[in-house]
Amino acid sequence: MYAWKTIRAFCVILLLLPLIHLAILVGQESIATLDDSPLAWQHEVDRYIQLDERTALPANPVVVIGGRRASLWPQLEATVSPMPLLIRTLGNATVNDFIHYHERLVSFYRPAAVVLVPGPSEFHLRANHSADKLTAAIQHLVALDSRVSSQRRFYVLAPIRSPLHSADWPTIDAVITALADWSVDHPAFELIDPNPLLANASGTPDSRYFRSGGVHLNAAGYLRLDLLLQQALREDFPTKFH
Questions:
Q1: Backbone phi and psi for residue 73, each to the nearest 5 degrees, phi listed first
Q2: Does pLDDT of 9 surpass 50?
């Protein structure tokens, strides 16, 4: 028979294991965020590779890429249904990280459509992009994808103005203006700007659509993204949504 203290200690360890695992994951992500090399996310890419080897991949999916803002999007599968969905997010990754991993995390799946969700890491923690640099990075990624397949649609969610980071608003507005102008000559590309639906009557971000920290969207905020993305997909793939 085992002593009661031994049994109790064992039970405590079992209870703590999920917390220990979470702490390890958070620590890995924090280290990767501070490393500006795309290779910082290689361990996450390797997990996707292992997952793909065990899973029957769908034909012509919608592939969603991005960092934390994309991974927190709760109703994506229902939003794109009946089109199949693959979510390939990387910690607090930036557009430049997905340029590096485009072949494996995007074109490998032969998607019908790609959805890029830039996050606050474009301006904080991992990068400090100016409007010109972020615009150029997005254009590079779209052009790279178009060279692989000129038939697929490439949607970019515009960077979101958040209540906490008001200093970013002019940069975000400049990116939106530049990409809207660029889209005129690039018919496979579509800019989806959710900012008007996330604003109050004065035109500034409405805190009702954001979590308490003032950076990430809450369920009501993501619902507005759902509506915009589904509308774009319905217009471009009408036979899928009849």
A1: -70, 115
A2: yes
